[in-house]
Structure to design on (406 residues):
C-alpha cells in the first residue's frame, strides 16, 4: 500500500494552485492576490517595527537620563535630607542617585560654547540611569576631573578622547580644567550637541550650591507599577516636594505615538482585508474553472465537506505564500531601512529624517515576533471567512450539472 505524505485534500489544493491547465487569467489573478497580501503584510511589519522602535527609543530617552521617577524640591535638596532615607526604604525602589544641572560654558571651542552641565554621581548613576550604556567611545568617568561630551558636539568642535577643556558658569567664573574621557551618543540631537556630563561636586561648585542637588532619581524594580509607586511616595512626602515619572515627561509625544500607530495600523489592515477579499474572488473564479473537475469528484463519491475543505485550504495556501513573502520583505526593509535612507539621501540629496525636526539621527527599529504571530493568525482567520462562501458554493454544485458544464 502506498502511503500518502499529505492528506488528499491538501494535495488536490496544491494541484489546483499550480495547475498548468488553468486559464492564464486565473494565474494572473492568483499572483495579484499573493502580491497584494505580501505588500500589505510588509507594510504592517515595517509600521510595527518603526512604531515599536520609536516607542522603545522614547522610553529609553525618558528613563535613560531621567530615570523612572524624579523627586525635586521647591529650592534645592540637601544630600542629608531625611526624605532620601524614606524613599530608599520603599520596597519597590531598587536604587537612587542625586543629580544637579547648571547652565554653563565649555572651552574650547573659541569663543566658549553654551552647554547644559549635568552633574551626576559616577558611582550610583549607572545603577539608576542608562547613561553609561550610551558611552560610544572612551570609558565611564572614574575621577572628578573627568567629563563626558556628546558625539555631535565632539565632531562639530573637533574634540576627542583626551581633549582638555575648561568649564565655567556665571556663578563660578573661574574655569575648571577637565579631561574628556568618553563620548556619548544618545541619538537625540538636543542631548548630543548641548550636554556635558561631569561629577556632582563639579556641578555643585559651578552652581555655587555645595552639598545640594536638584533631583533625586529613582529606579524601580522591574515588576513595580510606576504609577502606583509614584502615588504612594507622593502621598508620603511633604508639599514642598514634587515628583514626576517618565510617562509624564512627554505625555503629548506618547499619546501622539499611540494615535499614529493605531491610525496607520487601521489603514494598512483595511488594505490587507481588501487583499484577502481578493483571495475570495480568486476562489470563485477557480470554482467556475474547475466545475467539471468538482462534478467528477462528487460523482466519484467525494462529500461536500471534502470539496469545501479543498477550497478553504487552497485559499490558505495563497494567503500563506503572500504572508511569508510579506514577512521576509518587511523584516528585510526594517533591518536595512537606515542604509536605504542614507542611499536615498546620497542619490537625491533629500534628507528624509531632518535632525532639527525629529531630534533623531536614525529611524529606530524594533522587531516584534509576537506581533507578527498575531498578524499571521488574524490573516488566516480572515482568509477562512473570505474562502467560506466560494468553498460552500463549490461543495453545493450538482454533480450531473457540473460534469455537463461546458
Amino acid at each position: 500500500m502506498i502511503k500518502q505524505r499529505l492528506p488528499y485534500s491538501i494535495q488536490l489544493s496544491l494541484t489546483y494552485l499550480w495547475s498548468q491547465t488553468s486559464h492564464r487569467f486565473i494565474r494572473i489573478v492568483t499572483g495579484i492576490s499573493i502580491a497584494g497580501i505580501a505588500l500589505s503584510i510588509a507594510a504592517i511589519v515595517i509600521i510595527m517595527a518603526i512604531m515599536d522602535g520609536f516607542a522603545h527609543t522614547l522610553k529609553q530617552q525618558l528613563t535613560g537620563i531621567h530615570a523612572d521617577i524624579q523627586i525635586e524640591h521647591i529650592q534645592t535638596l540637601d544630600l542629608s535630607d531625611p526624605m532620601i532615607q524614606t524613599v530608599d526604604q520603599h520596597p519597590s525602589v531598587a536604587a537612587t542617585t542625586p543629580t544637579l544641572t547648571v547652565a554653563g560654558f565649555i572651552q574650547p571651542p573659541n569663543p566658549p560654547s553654551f552647554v547644559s552641565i549635568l552633574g551626576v554621581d559616577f558611582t550610583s548613576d549607572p545603577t539608576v540611569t542608562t547613561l553609561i550604556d550610551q558611552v560610544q567611545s572612551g570609558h565611564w568617568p572614574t575621577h572628578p576631573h573627568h567629563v563626558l561630551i556628546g558625539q555631535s558636539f565632539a565632531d562639530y568642535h573637533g574634540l576627542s578622547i583626551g581633549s582638555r577643556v575648561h568649564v565655567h558658569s556665571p556663578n563660578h567664573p573661574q574655569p575648571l580644567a577637565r579631561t574628556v574621557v568618553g563620548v556619548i551618543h544618545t541619538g537625540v540631537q538636543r542631548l548630543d550637541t548641548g550636554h556635558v556630563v561631569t561629577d556632582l561636586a563639579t556641578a555643585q561648585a559651578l552652581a555655587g550650591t555645595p552639598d545640594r542637588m536638584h533631583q533625586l532619581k529613582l529606579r524601580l524594580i522591574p515588576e513595580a507599577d510606576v504609577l502606583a509607586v509614584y502615588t504612594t511616595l507622593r502621598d508620603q512626602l511633604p508639599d514642598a516636594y514634587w515628583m514626576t515619572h517618565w510617562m509624564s515627561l512627554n505625555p503629548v509625544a506618547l499619546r501622539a505615538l499611540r494615535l499614529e500607530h493605531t491610525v496607520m495600523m487601521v489603514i494598512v489592515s483595511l488594505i490587507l482585508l481588501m487583499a484577502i477579499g481578493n483571495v475570495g474572488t480568486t476562489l470563485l473564479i477557480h470554482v467556475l474553472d474547475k466545475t467539471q473537475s468538482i462534478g467528477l469528484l462528487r460523482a466519484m463519491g467525494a462529500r461536500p465537506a471534502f470539496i469545501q475543505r479543498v477550497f478553504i485550504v487552497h485559499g490558505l495556501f495563497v494567503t500563506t505564500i503572500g504572508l511569508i513573502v510579506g514577512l521576509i520583505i518587511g523584516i528585510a526593509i526594517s533591518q536595512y531601512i537606515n542604509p536605504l535612507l542614507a542611499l536615498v539621501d546620497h542619490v537625491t540629496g533629500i534628507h528624509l529624517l531632518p535632525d532639527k525636526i525629529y531630534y533623531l539621527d536614525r529611524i529606530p527599529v524594533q522587531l516584534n515576533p509576537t506581533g507578527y504571530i498575531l498578524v499571521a493568525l488574524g490573516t488566516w482567520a480572515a482568509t477562512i471567512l473570505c474562502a467560506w462562501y466560494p468553498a460552500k458554493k463549490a461543495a453545493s454544485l450538482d454533480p450531473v450539472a457540473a460534469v455537463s458544464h461546458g
